[in-house]
Here is the input.
Amino acid sequence: MSISVEVHDMTVAYHRRPVLWNVDVTLPSGVLIGVIGPNGAGKSTFLKAVLGLVPIASGWAKVLGQPLSKVRTRIGYIPQRESVDWEFPVSVKDVVLMGRYGRLGWVRRPGPEDNKAAMLALSTVGMETYSQRQIGQLSGGQQQRVFLARAIAQDADVYFMDEPFAGVDAATEAQIVEVLRGMRARGKTVLAVHHDLQTVAEYFDYVVLLNMRLVAAGPTSDVFTKENLHKTYGGRLTLLVDAAEAVRTATAKQIL
Amino acid sequence: MNEFIRLVLLQDPNTRVVLAGAGLLGVCAGVLGVFVVLRRRALVGDAIAHAALPGIGASFLIFGERNVVALLAGAFVFGLLGVLCIAAIQMWTRVKEDAALGIVLSSFFGLGLVLSRIAQSTPGGNKAGLDGYIFGKAASMVQSDVLVIALVAVTTLVVVAFFFKELRLVCFDRSFAASIGRPVGMIDFVLLALVCVCVIAGLPAVGVVLTAALLIIPAAGARFWTDRLGYLVFIAGLFGAGAACIGVAMSAALPIPAGSRGWPTGAMIVLAAAAIFMVSMLLAPQRGVLAAVARRVAFKRKMSLEHVLRAAYEVTEDRKPGGFSWSINEIVRHIDGQAGLQRIINRAVRAGLVKKYIHGTRAGQYTLTDDGAIEATRLVRAHRLWEHFLIRHADIAPDHVHRGADELEHILPTEMIRAIELELGSTLPPAPPSPHQVVQGVRLEGNP
Amino acid sequence: MTQDAAMLSMLRGNCTIGFAISEYDLWVMLAGVLAAAACSIVGCFLVLRRMSLLGDAISHAILPGLAAAFLISHTREIVPMLIGAASAGVLAALLSGAMARYARVEESASLGVSFTTLFALGVVLIAFIPAGIDLDPSCVLYGSIEHVPLDTVVLFGVEIPRYIRTIAIVLIVNVVIVALLWKELKVVSFDAAFAASIGFGTAFVHTILVSAVAWTSVVCFEAVGSILVVAMLVAPGATAHLLTDRYPRMFVYSIILATSSAVIGYQLASALDTTAAGMMSVVAGVQFAIAALVAPKHGVFVKWMSRFLLSIRIRREDILASLYRELESQGAGTISLSASNPNDYVAACSTGNRYSRGLLTRISRRALRREGLIEEQLAGQLRLTAAGAEVARQVIRSHRMWESFLKEEVGLGPDHLHDPSHVMEHYITPQMRARLQSAYADRPDPHGKPVPPA
Here is the structure.
């Protein structure tokens, strides 16, 4: 089994405050990977750091065995819903076409082939009838499906999804999981930040348990244990939080 | 020069009037500005001032001559109308605050220009009067203007003093204020109305374009000096008054170069305020930039000194008594790449933490003094305790913990070290053994 | 100044009379149209990215740059002006950024501090420019669009105003940039995190945009003055965003709006003998106000209207349902509206309705009567017709099935069922009714009343 994501001794600070300490993890490809942890555990930050969207304080991350800049077109990303301006004048199809922008590069416009790929992606998630709607007029679940279609249109090898099930009803969730399984069948890797512990074992082959540091990572059956969950969600780490706060106040006073 | 002396001694009654007016205006704007800036509405004052112009134009058009009451009433109505338009646009359309502000500000201002140009071209129109409202003409202030400003300033101060608690609450936490039953909307409206009145009273002196500066700059400058709202209001009022007086005095006293139109008072007031702001930003003791830079330098120095102390401890850790001296080279090998090591050690010597042997076989070598040894033990202890904590409770591999601890040893407060001790159980010796091999000369670096 | 005005009115000829437009007027209008178009294109992005105030700040902050460039070079040539203005604009952006970052001044306050200070500096510098040269305080406010045709150059053998050439270049550059970076600007503005993940740097796009705003402001400043540039930048884009949800259309609309505001503004200004720049921004503001009120989808009237129609529908259904209940309990289709019989439907009106009960009720009753759903016999006597009973039955059916649903699935107590169902009954679609009926159609509702047949 080849490696999708490799992270070595990665420490990440957000607004001067360390949120992830010394993470070391190697993830296989061709599996659905759940990134699990309590609120403020640094799950989103983990994805963003691997994608190079937040600076890494120390350590490094590689995707598909290469530094990120070499494999950007092989990476797909679904950000959190809050990062988007829903009143922006774009249609559903426009949004899905954005998935093609990465491989088009600067200046070049999408052509008929990209259009075809976008429509195909839309029909995969069952949203082709909405292609001309403005994105803000859809329900939360439909918006999430459109974003999934955009990811499909990217035709990437490794996908990073920040809470793909947030604000989504049960039927849509089931549909999204179906699409993710289809991706896995085609050899894609998906890393998804997930909240609902009930469904972890059902959805994911592999889990990464995070709480400011890596608690455990491995096949769900081995790692998703009561003991590890207790370590992830249990206390004992107030000191880590305090230390992060101490770093923040010490550096804030000196304007770093 | 004669001018200047007359000015300083306040011999000219006209100067006294102008200074009093501008000073009162500065106090009023500074005080209100604090709340406006804290409410994150710094640019609302700008919008009000611009939106007020059609009121002035309209009253010129209707009454022809300069009729102070009608002018101010017209300006007030349009200023308030502008604010209400901004609120209505945000509430009822999809247009966001920034665009609403921009549209209202510029189209009202355009209307004001249109009306005043029409007013100027009508026979008997007072041409000079209007431009004064756009750029401000403090020098032409008369006693009645000052009376209006004084009235506004007193009203503002009384209202602010009376509702101080409510204003603080609303500025700090709107939803909490609403939850305990304060009429948040009403308080906001009173604040806006006060700003409106103050801006309009300031129009003759500072002008439409720059009144906003009097609201924003003193308040933002005062913010550097204190964190207490009461002091903040006081300092901002002081700054406002100071800026206004300095600006007026400079524009009156500075010699006017040949060919120039004279110093524009409004702009000079704003520049004076900006100068006060700059000084505050640089020199304020806690939040000032220079103080922060100094703190940073001091911290860096402390950190490098502490690194040397810890290195001195670690290179002599396994030696027997009598072998505790060390040379610079040993330290260099231990902490790779520390620049200016000799200077740092000299500093340690001066601080009485390190002793240098001058004579004998160990001449040129160093050793920790008693104080230095205590300090070094404390540092090593903090460093290693933190490493142990990370390994035991944060599941971090032993070969990864060093660098994190390297930074934290300088920062961790004593109570936290105590908490870590409790967490680990107090079985560890004063400085517990390192959890990893102390590799000499090798730093664990990130990128491969 | 008076000589100027006299010369201008002479040159302008008889433009206020009828439609005879002189060549002079055409040049001035063309300058306005080109400036408005150049502004509106970059302005769309300012509106979409919520950076309108940056446009305001930059257009103010360039003043000292312009004044300094003039004082040094003694000309109004575009190159020194651009250099001066650009450096002032960059200074403003750096200053406010540095203050927010290093001195932790709140963001809008730092913007306010830096641009007002620079503007004040500009005003002071301008005071040093000898009177009579056309960079004076009134030029800062009004621009000098009326003077545009006076200074000409020869281009391809044709004599055109120098300013037309400059503003045309700016317009072309803006169009080319927007066309080249069409999709990049779109994706960065819509979803910056995603754009960064596919390698489109937000910072780069942002820099391009800010620079475009800066040079456009510099050049348009000359035509319309510092404050009215903001109207040209922000108003057309915001208006267009109210009119459409399509990305390309927003640009087309905003260009149309901007150019028409220039033409209309200039004509109005000529007619009223006032400042053209001021009038243009008034027209832009009026366009926005009209769109905000009557835009087909996002206008205030449309929203109020649909809310009003909804309350009428609810009131109608409430009237019909109450008559139906009356019918059920009395076995007769007539109820009295006299005071002695407190009419059920008024008491049961949805709460929090902002319209007066009397008006809504009267409108609803008239509509029901006209459509033959009720008959009004004597004064105040209502009777349900067969068609009305049909409609009422569906409402009651929704209401009672929803009550059953609330009791069974949500577990509400019997005294908490009526009010939510009374609201919900108006929103239950036929599809939802079909889904409810499989479980709840064939048995009485929680209060023991029968669910009427479909």
